[in-house]
Amino acid sequence: ALMASKNLLLLAGDGIGPEAMAEVKKLIAAMNDKLGSDFVTDEGLVGGCAYDAHGAAISDADMAKAMAADAVLFGAVGGPKWDAVPYEVRPEAGLLRLRKDMELFANLRPAICYPALAASSSLKQEVVEGLDILIVRELTGGVYFGEPKQIVDLGNGQKRGIDTQVYDTFEIERISGVAFELARTRKNHVTSMEKRNVMKSGVLWNEVVTQTHKARYADVKLDHMLADAGGMQLVRWPKQFDVIVTDNLFGDMLSDIAAMLTGSIGMLPSASLGAPDAKTKKRKALYEPVHGSAPDISGKGIANPIAMIASFAMCLRYSFGMVAEADKLEAAIAAVLDDGLRTKDILSEGMTEVGTVQMGDAIIAKFLG
Ligand code: NAI
Ligand code: MG
């Protein structure tokens, strides 16, 4: 491949992963063909299919490809076929290894409300209409990884379960840096969420975000909110937010809450970013839909490809600076929904039901047209 070309590794995975990825492959081919884009794609195995092929959820060779790529597009992994495989090689281990080796510490979860779907939200239409927020969750630290992490037998018929919330200055600095930088490309507003009222890690979080803001990002509006109050505000009036930055645990919950403001899991994209390379300034990055492999519908051609396509839009925006193309792709998704096309998961009365391929084709046609 030429030095200047954009190298993508496609890891479609299991279940509906390959079905959704096929639509993105068509889109990439169309961009190369019709728009003169210079994407070069390579493919690898991850998850159950990788386990079947070589007994590991991702091979060292595919891992090396992921490390060398400009960006990784990931489908979904897992399924009942692999429920009994050993814990270390279970399908999810492939994703965990990618996150760990690529040091993907920043998880980006947008919550966007497409106008055509606003009426089907569980919240009132005026609360979600036009919603466009971004949750930046710290992904490699905090209580999911802190030590000690164990169950201790106290010997008196009681056991003690221990998890430890740990954050160091550099971890808070780098995640808040990502949030401030992204805010500058949006509405220039960051809300940091922690629980400094009851957690020492929350006190430090608040301090370091405040210092990082003062030192490098004073042009961005910064608010602090307790994470539980933040949960309430997300449901009460989510449009008050632009970028929310929070830790691993709170981010896990708050991003799932935000996701449901806007409808089906088949619509939700995500990105995970690492630190910028010292020389090239490029961040390692992996883009994936929020949904899993959906074994209940896989092979039927009815999976919604929008989450995967919207993940590729994030890739264009964050890995390649192709902001106009990303905007155009998101507009194409909105336009196809405006036209009434719906996969089964988002179907409502009076709309036109389409399958995975038709939905992909329609979005690509709008995007090129
Ligand atoms: P899931 O997200 O695969 O499915 C949940 C429900 O949403 C199902 O009814 C499914 O049909 C539906 N759904 C999901 N994506 C859809 C789409 N694009 N279009 C239409 N409907 C869609 O979660 P579930 O059922 O809990 O897990 C299934 C498998 O996926 C498990 O093996 C699980 O471990 C794995 N998984 C993998 C993830 C990943 O690869 N990152 C994330 C979550 C689960
Ligand atoms: Mg979750």
Task: Summarize the structure in words.
The model has no long low-confidence stretch (mean pLDDT 95). The chain folds into two domains: 1-112 and 266-369, 3-Layer(aba) Sandwich (Isopropylmalate Dehydrogenase); 132-260, Isopropylmalate Dehydrogenase, CATH 3.40.718.10. The chain has helices at 17-34, 48-54, 60-68, 92-101, 125-128, 169-184, 200-216, 227-236, 248-260, 306-320, 323-338, 356-368, and strands spanning 6-13, 39-44, 71-76, 106-112, 132-138, 146-153, 159-164, 189-194, 221-226, 243-246, 269-276, 283-289, 341-342, 352-353. The chain is α/β, with parallel strands linked by helices and 369 residues long. It is globular, with a radius of gyration of 21 Å. A hairpin with a 5-residue loop joins strand 6 and strand 7. The strands form three sheets. A ten-stranded mixed β-sheet has the order 2-1-3-12-11-4-5-10-8-9, with helices on both faces. Magnesium ion binds next to helix 9. Residues 252, 256 line the site of magnesium ion (MG). Mg(2+) binds at residues 228, 252, 256. NAD(+) binds at residues 79-92, 292-304. It is an enzyme of class 1 (oxidoreductase). One of its GO terms (cellular component) is cytosol.
